[in-house]
Design brief:
By secondary structure, the chain is an alpha+beta fold. It has three domains: 2-73 and 109-187 and 285-384, FAD/NAD(P)-binding domain (3-Layer(bba) Sandwich), CATH 3.50.50; 189-284, D-Amino Acid Oxidase, subunit A, domain 2 (D-Amino Acid Oxidase, Chain A, domain 2, 2-Layer Sandwich), CATH 3.30.9; 408-443, no CATH class. It has eleven helices and 20 strands. The protein has helices spanning 15-26, 50-57, 62-68, 96-104, 116-127, 176-181, 206-210, 254-265, 312-331, 341-365, 375-384, and strands at 2-11, 31-35, 70-71, 78-81, 88-92, 112-113, 131-133, 135-142, 147-153, 159-169, 189-201, 214-218, 223-228, 234-241, 272-286, 291-292, 295-297, 303-304, 431-434, 437-440. The strands form four sheets. Strands 1, 2, 7, 8, 9, 10, 16 and 17 form an eight-stranded mixed beta sheet that branches. It is globular, with a radius of gyration of 22 Å. The N and C termini lie far apart (54 Å). This is FAD-dependent oxidoreductase. Residues 6-351 form the FAD-binding domain. Its cofactor is FAD.
């Protein structure tokens, strides 16, 4: 059996695994990503957050993301209606001071939207042959010095042995890596059973009528969302309730899905091309540990949450961003930083989960708009979480150890921001930000 070696083996080529490999490459660390499936064949589920855009921007991908994305409505801007084409029941928006803060706290446009598929395609192009699809992890062993994995090419049946200095499990909620490490997710609990439809439909100027790209619909036939995925003809809908809905997970036929979508849209003759409909269980849980020896968990392998709030994928990508530079340091002889990965990212995941839980419960209730009551927690979980005990005011810029550095333009043309510094590689030691540029700290 052929044996190859890589510094880091990443299992899972979803947005989290691919992003983690891109962050590693930025810090000069070679990696190999394997996945038994082609991740780009999945529907465009999750969307990117402003903080995640900032992170990719620090890799020099700002223009690529802007060109690939589109401008959605501001975060948390929502309309609640009796049907997509029907009457407005009420509207939801962040309070003005929080909405203004999101518009001005970052060098990126808070309305820029990209799906997980968009991100995967962009990162796949950057990684090239660092990604091998159709390759499945069979098992692995680990010593104090090396991880040894056995993989199989699903097309040829050929097995291969891969040794790595470190292993990253980015293989989702049913993580094979997590199971292999013997790590449980003891607090995992289901909060709802949903069906999500991805489809194309010409709904005219309905988004302009809404004044937002996100609509919640409740009527006698269905309780569902209608979210625009491109500002034109591509949509997704969470079908949360309908008469006769079973209490547990259940598949929906194409006929029933289209019937419910038409009821949500408010047009019995709407032409709908259904791309996919998935039955899934929204669950919230966090792994008992994010690390075992030379193996680490990121994304859904480490923590799962409801889609409410839209921070699940983003929290996972930020796991990889945190871990990548620490692995680079470890491979350069400074392994001590790896001990900070779990406590820092566990705190961020817990904040994201708490927000998701509150939003999910509010949306299931459906009778109130949660955007005002959760505004501070939403900004904190998305942009202003801290690694440590210090909790700063999300409406005020503060330079605090363990927190995101405040955004300030560093040039007259407003092309370089202080938040781009998470990707600077000018020196091995501390960096000094001065009005005339970014230099090594020499004091």
């Amino acid at each position: 059996m052929r044996t190859t070696h890589v510094p880091v083996l990443v299992v899972g080529a979803g947005p989290v695994g691919l992003s983690t490999a891109a962050f590693l490459a930025h810090w000069g660390v070679d990696s190999l990503v394997i996945d038994k499936r082609d991740p780009t064949e999945a529907p465009p589920r999750a969307d990117i957050s402003p903080r995640t855009v900032e992170i990719f921007r620090s890799l020099g991908m700002g223009e690529e993301l802007t060109e690939a994305g589109w401008r959605a409505s501001p975060p948390m801007s929502t309309v609640f209606k009796d049907s997509g084409k029907g009457n407005v029941l009420h509207r939801g928006d962040l309070p003005p001071e929080y909405a203004r803060r999101l518009r001005t706290c970052s060098p990126v446009d808070s309305r820029l939207s990209l799906s997980q598929r968009d991100i995967q395609l962009l990162v796949l192009r950057r990684l090239g042959d660092r990604v091998r699809l159709g390759v499945r992890l069979l098992d692995f062993t680990m010593t104090d010095l090396v991880v040894t994995a056995t993989v199989v090419d699903e097309r040829t049946g050929v097995r291969e042995q891969i040794t790595a200095d470190y292993l990253i499990g980015a293989d989702g909620a049913r993580s094979h890596v997590r199971d292999g490490l013997g790590i449980a997710m003891s607090d995992l609990r289901a909060v709802a059973h949903l069906n999500t439809a991805f489809y194309r439909a010409d709904l005219g100027d309905i988004v302009d009528q809404w004044g937002t790209t996100r609509c919640f619909v409740r009527n006698e036939h269905v309780y569902a969302t209608i979210f625009s995925k491109n500002g034109r003809d591509q949509w997704s809908s969470h079908i949360m309730d309908y008469p006769g809905k079973p209490g547990g997970p259940s598949e929906l036929s194409e006929e029933d899905t289209i019937r419910l979508l038409r009821a949500a849209i408010g047009d019995e003759r709407a032409s709908i091309r259904l791309d996919a409909v998935t039955a899934w269980t929204a669950a919230i849980g966090i792994a008992d540990s994010f690390r075992s020896g030379r193996a680490f968990l990121v994304g859904d392998a480490a923590h799962v949450q409801s889609s409410a709030g839209g921070l699940g994928m983003n929290t996972g990508i930020q796991d990889g961003h945190n871990l990548a530079w620490k692995l680079a340091a470890a491979l350069s002889g400074k392994p001590c930083f790896l001990d900070t990965y779990e406590p820092e990212r566990r705190a961020a995941a817990e904040a994201s989960q708490a927000l998701s839980r509150r939003l999910h419960e509010a949306y299931l209730d459906g009778d109130s708009d949660p955007s005002t009551s959760i505004a501070e927690d939403y900004l904190r979980a998305m942009m202003f979480y801290a690694y440590g005990d210090t909790e700063t005011d999300v409406l005020v810029d503060s330079v605090v150890v363990g927190s995101r550095y405040p955004h300030r333009w560093l040039d007259a043309d407003q092309t370089v921001s202080t938040v781009d510094g998470s990707g600077w590689r000018v020196v091995d030691g501390p960096t000094l930000i001065r009005p005339d540029g970014i230099v090594a700290w020499t004091a």
